[in-house]
Design brief:
Length: 541
């Protein structure tokens, strides 16, 4: 029995009369703690300040964020719990809207008008299920995945009604723990009984995680035939086809999905990227343009949309030997202005803008304007205080090389490779642009020494460990992960009493060599913690 009196609800609705009506419906059900907001921004703020059990959101909310974008952001920043019930409400029922909303996985979708009985029936089913599975959700929200798996086994016994839902959660948890074979067993056991779309998707994911791309491709194609509106299958199939070098097929797959659901930024970006690889610039221009439009008010708005759109326009103009339609040039100029305005306080974006605009001018034969942008880019780069992300370094290197700045381009690509040598996917794309292959050999040597150092440390052979790590840094002095590993081991050795006080100064030297690491870098938190520990030890000496 649900205790509605204890529930907290949030209504996101810009039509005041309907909002009051909806609050009245919840009151009749027994929910008295109800807050009303009328914009996406105020909804996000409300969810950061208070934890709700129920969120009822209209899809259309005027000029700001829509319901789909609210749900995206709440999930992205984890502002709502896994056991919160989120229901999308709207009078609009176009295919594009419905599919876009559903892809963000609300718990339910209610078409206006609906009455109290319909709302209560839907809430009752959803809350009953959420409360039954609440222990699992709480463990997942706390990052205790192993505990969540154990709870799944226990709750399957006590709540057989939700066995299949629990099996789905358990398999997803196993995927997070990289227990792909065990997850596969669950998916296959479900499919042995009947074909369920989420189990087919899960099976394909587990196969892809084990690089069984051909098998996964077969499963995904079957999923699409049987469940053509399960759009995640298209995304995975396109990824699968890309891994096998089938880029034309991957592009067609994404285009099929976009016809069914055109309002997903990530899918538009994927299509644009693959179309660029296929040198289909008309398609890439259209896809990146859509991602810019969809980015308004979205957490997934990204400068990449502008940069890649403009690069695609430049490539198309170059391919057409400078014959640029006036409308396309005008549109690109408008987007460039919008880019600078949107990201004016971001120096890396300003740098990217200068390079991409330089290439835009070059494609149209405007060499003087192109060179001005080159000089501007060089000045910004010389003053930059933040390390370039890997993909940005590669992008800038390619752009500058095309603008005749081969030396600076090689400097950027070399730095990017040294900073991110452990990223095999990045290396695969970056190495063809690297002229000095000795960087690669030094990187390999550094990683061998790094591995040996870890083994020596595990065997408590501290002197040997320190020597290996020191040599690894000497071989690849800009490799962030190796520097962080070296500092971590040196600190542990120092704390165990097996090293001199000078080790702390050595750690600070290493850490200061990478202190321009961007806060957005996934390694930044580890860097910050090691710097904090080093300074604490230094103060205690």
């Amino acid at each position: 029995m649900i205790n509605y009196e204890e529930k907290k609800a949030l209504i996101i609705e810009d039509f005041q009369e309907f909002a009051r009506s909806l609050k009245g419906m919840l009151g009749e059900i027994g929910i008295e703690d109800v807050d009303l907001v009328n914009t996406g921004e105020s909804a996000i703020r409300a969810c950061t300040e208070k934890k709700y059990d129920i969120v009822l959101s209209d899809y259309n909310l005027g000029d700001g964020k829509n319901g789909m974008q609210i749900l995206e952001e709440l999930h992205h920043f984890k502002h709502i719990r896994s056991d919160t019930v989120f229901i999308m409400t709207t009078a609009e029922n176009t295919t594009a809207m419905v599919m876009g909303a559903i892809e963000n996985q609300p718990d339910a979708y209610l078409t206006k008008p609906f009455n109290n009985a319909q709302l209560k029936s839907r809430l009752s089913k959803l809350l009953t299920k959420k409360e039954a599975l609440s222990p699992i959700f709480k463990a997942i929200d706390k990052g205790k995945i192993k505990q969540a798996i154990e709870l799944c086994d226990a709750l399957m016994e006590s709540h057989p009604k939700y066995k299949m839902a629990i099996q789905k959660i358990k398999a997803e948890c196993m995927m997070k723990k990289r227990q792909y074979s065990k997850a596969m067993e669950i998916f296959e056991s479900i499919l042995a009984g009947r074909q369920v779309p989420w189990a087919m998707i899960g099976l394909a994911k587990s196969q892809m995680s084990q690089r069984q791309y051909e098998t996964a491709e077969s499963v995904l194609k079957e999923t699409i035939v049987k469940f053509p509106m399960v759009l995640e299958a298209y995304d995975l199939l396109a990824e699968c086809q890309s891994k096998q070098g089938m880029l034309d097929e991957a592009q067609k797959t994404l285009q099929q999905a976009i016809k069914k659901s055109p309002r997903v930024i990530k899918r538009q970006l994927k299509l644009g990227n693959i179309a660029v690889d296929n040198r289909d610039f008309d398609t890439s221009i259209g896809a990146f343009k859509q991602s810019i439009k969809l980015g308004n008010n979205s957490i997934y708005k990204t400068p990449d949309s502008y940069i890649k759109y403009t690069n695609s326009v430049s490539s198309k103009i170059t391919e057409d030997e400078g014959n640029a339609p006036k409308a396309l040039v005008s549109e690109a100029e408008s987007y460039i202005k919008d880019f600078y305005k949107t990201y004016r306080d971001d120096k890396i974006c300003t740098l990217r803008g200068a390079v991409v605009e330089g290439n835009f001018f070059k494609s149209r034969g405007k060499t003087t304007e192109a060179q001005k942008n080159v000089e501007r880019a060089k000045k910004i780069y010389s003053e930059l205080e933040t390390m370039l992300p890997a993909e940005t370094g590669l992008e800038l290197a390619q752009g500058l090389d095309n603008l005749g700045e081969a030396t600076l381009a090689q400097e950027m690509i070399t730095d990017a490779i040294q900073h991110n040598f452990e990223d095999s996917h990045f290396l695969e794309r970056a190495l063809p642009h690297l002229k000095d292959k000795s960087v690669l050999e030094k990187g390999k040597e550094a990683h061998k020494l790094n591995s040996k150092g870890i083994k020596h440390f595990e065997n408590k052979e501290f002197d040997k460990a320190v020597k290996c790590f020191t040599k690894a840094v000497e071989a690849s002095p800009k490799n962030i992960s190796i520097i962080l590993n070296t500092v971590q081991v040196l600190l542990k050795v120092h704390q165990s009493g097996n090293a001199s006080d000078s080790v702390v100064e050595q750690c600070l030297t290493y850490l200061n060599s990478i202190n321009t690491l961007a806060p957005t870098d996934p390694r930044f938190d580890r860097f910050s913690e090691l710097m904090r520990l080093t300074r604490v030890i230094q103060q205690e000496q």
